[in-house]
Amino acid sequence: MGGYFNIAGRKVATHHLVLGVLAGYGLVFKAVMPKTDKTQAPPIKASSDEESRFIQDFLKAAEAEDKKAAH
């Protein structure tokens, strides 16, 4: 079927070598990518201060309700 390489006294299939190289590139790419903070909420774009306060109060009430339901 495919070719084999003799590495450290063992036969290793070429497709296993390819998969190892691709996995290595993927791991290096993931390690180099910048980490993002997913805990930060998206900004609130309200047309007025009243609307902004309403949204913030609603979110606080919803979080409090979730914490109460979790206990």
TrEMBL record:
One of its GO terms (cellular component) is mitochondrial membrane. Keywords: Membrane, Mitochondrion, Transmembrane, Transmembrane helix. One of its GO terms (biological process) is proton motive force-driven ATP synthesis. It is found in: Mitochondrion membrane. InterPro entries: ATP19 (IPR021278). It comes from the Eukaryota. The chain crosses the membrane at residues 12-32. This is ATP synthase subunit K, mitochondrial. It comes from Coemansia thaxteri.
